[in-house]
Write a structure and sequence with these properties.
Elements: H1 2-31, H2 41-60, E1 64-65, H3 70-98, H4 107-129, E2 132-133
Antiparallel strand pairs: 1-2
Helix pairs in contact: 1-2, 1-4, 2-3, 3-4
């Protein structure tokens, strides 16, 4: 139980880092580069997913393995995180459509979507990618 609590805590820390990357990039692309707020989520998601993969591989699931090479693990991670991304993006788009003023501040709906998606992401990461404990050789 302590190990699971530690993993949840580290996943949350990595998630906060990913949220900073995600919201920072989407806000910069929309606010300064004048991107469409819906399209800006593509590079912000990919950047955040790459950061969270690195964090979780290095810290959260350091005692687990995926049995994949790093590049394959990253692609699998992004694929799994896509389930959460669909939830995240759905909440994001719903909030943007419901509150047009948020188009100027897309980081807020991006953050709301990220919080909900985090629950799905932890379950899929732990249960489908980093499911095996590392063995000492």
């Amino acid at each position: 139980m302590v190990k699971l609590s530690r993993e949840i805590t580290l996943f949350a820390v990595g998630g906060i880092g990913g949220l900073v990357v995600d919201t920072g990039i989407v806000q910069l692309l929309v606010g300064f580069a004048h991107w469409n707020p819906y399209l800006a989520r593509v590079p912000s998601f990919l950047s955040a997913a790459t950061f969270t993969w690195w964090w979780n591989r290095r810290y959260t699931f350091a005692t687990r393995r995926s049995d994949r090479a790093a590049h394959a693990e990253l692609l699998h991670w992004i694929g799994l995180m896509s389930f959460g991304a669909v939830i995240n993006y759905g909440i994001y788009a719903l909030l943007l459509m419901s509150f047009p003023a948020l188009h100027r501040w897309p980081a807020l709906p991006a953050a709301a979507g990220s919080v909900v998606a985090a629950l799905v992401n932890f379950s899929t990461a732990r249960g489908m990618l980093f499911k095996s404990p590392k063995t000492l050789v």
